[in-house]
Amino acid sequence: MNSELLLQLSSASLLGFMSSGHCIGMCGGISCALGLQNHPQKKMALLLYHLGRISTYTLLALLFGASLQHTLHKFPLLAPWLRTIAGLLLLGMALHIAQWWSGIVQLEKLGKRWWQPLQSLTKPLLPAQHYWQFFLLGVLWGWLPCALVYSTLTWAASQADPKQSASLMFFFGLGTTPALFASGIFAQNIQTLMQKKVWRYSAALLLAGCAVWTMTAGWLHAGHPHMH
Fold first, then answer.
1. Contact in structure between 69 and 161 (CB atoms under 8 Å)
2. Which pick of 56, 110, 160, 199 has the fewest CB atoms within 10 Å?
3. Residue 132's pLDDT is what?
4. Residues 6 or more apart from 3 whose CB is under 8 A from it?
5. pLDDT tens column, 56-102
6. What value, to the nearest 5°, has the Cα angle with vertex 193 and ends 188 and 199?
7. DSSP H/E element including 173
8. Quick one: CA torsion of 195, 199, 203, 209, rounded to 10 degrees?
9. Helices 147-157 and 108-122 meet at what angle, rounded to 10?
10. Cβ(106)–Cβ(151) under 8 Å?
11. What is the pTM of this model?
């Protein structure tokens, strides 16, 4: 594994962890509800739910990365522009987490078209009692409209390498899991921590740094196509 890929995977994981406050707002209630189910193995049930959610993120990145790989192979000059779009989305997400601008959440309206029919598929699985039900709920709820997921998915797909794109989203999903898992058990305490200014500003700073790195790296590679 080269140093650049290792840095990207670490960044994806840290990005997910530091952005968990937004994740809790979006689907922490779901995680909390699952954690409060009268189930003898609550922790295992929650882990399977999150494994399903991460599986959806990974599959989406794999598909988008594969489609962009073919396109960018034909039109390599599109790569830095795509990285720029990904960086701007991450920057918009940073402003949202810092609570300075919330225009980025308009992206979530795009996902409502496919989320509504998928949401109806979750009803037969509730109340969840079996492990496979928790996993499938995670797979379905992985499609929940989320600006953070869309922003990170664009960044991951902009690598134009299916395996690398999938790996980045997998590590991003892993990064979001500790806080979401804990929110299913210690919801109030976790939410209080994530809403503190120091946490929000730290997460926003990390996202902004990732955004700048994504945009500048795209243009540096465009100028030096053989640079690794």
1. yes
2. 110
3. 93
4. none
5. 999 999 999 998 988 888 888 888 898 899 899 989 988 988 889 98
6. 150
7. helix 162-183
8. 140
9. 110
10. no
11. 0.85
